[in-house]
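Here is an idea for our session: we take a single protein and study its fold together. Once you have written the record down, we can walk along the chain together.
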Amino acid sequence: MKRYPAQDLEPAVRDPKKLRRTALILIGIMLVGAVFILIAYNRDAARRAEDTRPAITGRLNKNFKVWRQDETEAGLLDLRGDVFVIVPVVFSQPDSWDTTREVLLELEKRYESRDDLHIVCVTQDPENEPPELLAEEAKKLGAELPKWWLAGSREESVHKFFKNVLKANIMAHRKDGEIVYDASLVVIDRDRHIRQPTVRARKASGKELNYRNRVTFDFEGAAEWDEKGRSEGLEKSNVETMKDLLFVTIDELLAQPVTPD
């Protein structure tokens, strides 16, 4: 290959017209791309606004192990392919899940003919609520396996599971001799997805907005709102409204098949 002395080389001469034309072409491409992205975003936002399906907020990937009221061991993923609700409870503190308990009794009765719907109550105080006590509580509730589990595990594992995996609002902890915990019920679909329903947000005037809020099944919180009169002017109480939403959510999830792997 022939080499030329450096002193014989000439700097490239840039054509200002070509540079401007190239810049304009690039700007045009960027603008067209931005328009298409904006159109796609608006279409997706509109689709999401009309989507009434429960949102997926996570998934159970590890088989969280528990003991049950009959002293047998099991894992939550043993229920894969079915729909189930997971409920944190403390049996020695019945007031902490009083409203939730009534909802569960109604839930069990409503779906008593379904063998693909399960209730899993997990004690937040397993050190003081062993299988023997769970068996006694199961008799009081009429909770029978395999439909209705009363379960426990190591306290540290239980608290971390509800906070880190099920996204509880607070980490369960002891305070003044009692367990403080988030009593919200969690719904799991056939594919092990954690599901939360969404409702269209409304202004004070009642006009619907174009976005949706996720709902947590916190029946104890809903009962407090009703006690404070926050259901005044509504057709139903907050508890009844939330319960209806729970049933609609479960009906929809039961109607969905398992997704093939």
